């Protein structure tokens, strides 16, 4: 359990009140409006969704992908064993073997290269989640102890008519929370742009074809 988990209950209670006040509308011209248009969600709903994001599953996924690399390494070692034979068939086999080795583990576009990129991307996402949760927890702690939180609680008491002060306080809290989440989402989009080329589907890369030669002698050594 991290700081965000510990703040979730009081934070969601406050943000539910904020959402209730904002459902009637935010103050005209408030800086919250651009954030609402961009995010298309109220802060309470946004935080509830974000609470489900944890870095541990992504870190575990990265470890699991890296474990797959060992199987490819074993296969490449087997293919790398030299066979003492010569002739047309041996040349054709060597060409096919070299092409397969290149596809399996030669450079970032190989299968192993893509696996390593996928694992590193999972690590980067885990770091993004962890950092974003810290930033959101900090923002929640600040708004929970703010004068705006007091105004929101006062405006949402049973039988109390929510006036402009309550709406203004709710808009301020929403701006802080959605601002942090907006930065987090920008970070996620940046990661996708950075890692996208390294995560593209790998394709079979043939070496230049050599016309087979038949009728020669194949020699096998022991």
Polypeptide structure, described:
- The protein has 222 residues and is an all-alpha fold.
- The protein has one domain.
- The protein is 70% helix and 2% strand.
- A two-stranded antiparallel ribbon has the order 1-2.
- Helix 4 runs antiparallel to helix 5.
- The longest helix is centred in the middle third of the chain and has 34 residues.
- The mean pLDDT is 86.
What would you say about this model in short?
With 222 residues, this protein is mainly α. The chain has helices at 3-22, 32-39, 43-50, 55-80, 88-105, 111-144, 147-155, 164-195, and strands at residues 85-86, 219-220. It has one domain (3-199).
Secondary structure blueprint with pairings:
Elements: H1 3-22, H2 32-39, H3 43-50, H4 55-80, E1 85-86, H5 88-105, H6 111-144, H7 147-155, H8 164-195, E2 219-220
Antiparallel strand pairs: 1-2
Helix pairs in contact: 1-3, 1-6, 1-7, 1-8, 2-8, 4-5, 4-6, 6-8, 7-8
User: How are the strands of the biggest sheet laid out side by side?
Assistant: 1-2
State the helix count.
8
The succession of helices and strands, N to C, reads HHHHEHHHHE
Mean pLDDT: 86
Biggest β-sheet: count, sense, barrel? 2 strands, antiparallel
pLDDT under 50 segments (min length 5)?
none
């Amino acid at each position: 359990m991290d700081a965000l988990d510990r703040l979730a209950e009081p934070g969601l209670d406050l943000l539910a009140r904020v959402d209730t006040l904002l459902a009637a509308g935010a103050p005209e011209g408030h800086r919250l409006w651009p954030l609402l248009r961009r995010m298309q969600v109220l802060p309470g709903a946004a935080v509830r969704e974000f609470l489900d994001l944890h870095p541990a599953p992504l870190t575990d996924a990265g470890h699991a992908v890296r474990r797959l690399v060992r199987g490819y390494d074993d296969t490449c070692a087997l293919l790398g064993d030299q066979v003492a034979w010569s002739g047309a068939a041996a040349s054709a086999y060597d060409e096919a073997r070299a092409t397969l080795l290149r596809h399996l583990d030669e450079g970032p576009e190989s299968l192993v290269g893509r696996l390593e990129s996928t694992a590193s991307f999972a690590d980067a996402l885990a770091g993004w989640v962890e950092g974003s949760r810290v930033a959101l927890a900090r923002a929640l702690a600040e708004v929970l102890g703010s004068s705006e939180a007091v105004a929101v609680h006062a405006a949402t008491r049973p039988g109390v008519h929510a006036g402009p002060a309550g709406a203004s306080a709710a808009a301020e809290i929403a701006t802080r929370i959605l601002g942090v989440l907006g930065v987090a989402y920008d970070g996620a989009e940046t990661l996708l742009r950075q890692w996208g080329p390294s995560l593209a589907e790998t394709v079979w890369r043939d070496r230049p074809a050599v016309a087979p030669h038949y009728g020669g002698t194949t020699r096998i050594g022991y």
